[in-house]
Amino acid sequence: MSQITRALDYLKQALTLARSPGLRGYVIVPMIFNVLVFGGLYYLSGQWIAGWISAATAGWSFDGGLSFLNGAVDFLVGAAVVLVWILLLGLMASVFTLGVQLIAAPFMGFLAEKVDVRISGRPLPEESIAAMTVRVFKRELRKTWYWLWRALLILLVVLVIYFIPVVNVLASAVWFLWSGWLLGMQYIDYAADNRQVPFTVMLERLKTKRWLVLTFGSVILGLTMLPLVNLVIMPVAVIAGTLVWVHELAEEPVPRQG
Predict the structure, then answer these.
(1) Is 213 a residue whose pLDDT tops 90?
(2) Does 257 reside within a domain?
(3) 38: containing domain
(4) Residue 72 domain-assigned?
(5) What is the pLDDT of residues 131-179, one digit of tens each?
(6) Does residue 6 sit within a domain?
(7) How big is the CA angle at 101 (ends 99 and 107), to the nearest 5 degrees?
(8) Are 189 and 139 in contact (CB under 8 A)?
(9) Average pLDDT of the chain, as a whole number
(10) DSSP string over 98-142
């Protein structure tokens, strides 16, 4: 319970830090970028699909005695367009989040660095921006490989459980917890990577605080499942993940205040 409580406290502290001078810009810029890119893609995709539906159903009308059904046909076509907009929002919310995590990794690394140095007071290892960008991108690919093949195994387990009566209620919980662990790892690793801690070492340290990492990641996962909220939660999650690393998982953890 102590680890669960601390995970929630770090998220609350991250919300406060996100509004502080010196960090506010690193939070606002990716938010604006996400909203503009997501909004543009969502609008263009929705307009194209809605236009295709309207064009495909343009001739759907009845004459004579069945003309009274035209109102119902128009309603169904309109409902289909609305449903497409809703489904597209959910689909793009999940896919877009994954894409942005890879593209914005270097920027999130800068944010994690600012938080780390502010809280710990310790400078990071010196390296050029080009070297840092390459290192962060390679790290993201390494993490992608880590979760990809494990996700396939977990998916097989979930499918097996799904077809077992009574036990199948656990299928969604298993997948949710696994996804929560991955997100916890993702956002904590920005700080670990800045300190150039090897990926395998970082994973070993995460396992010493399983409930803290799982709670942190699961809460973030729940927030990323909310359309629009997922556009602004990423920098806050990076700040919270950095706090978890600095106070809990660093080689020399910084004592928490209060």
Answers:
(1) yes
(2) no
(3) 2-249
(4) yes
(5) 777 887 788 788 888 878 787 888 787 777 777 777 777 777 887 888 8
(6) yes
(7) 125
(8) yes
(9) 80
(10) HHHHHHTHHHHHHHHHHHHHHHH--PPPP--HHHHHHHHHHHHHH
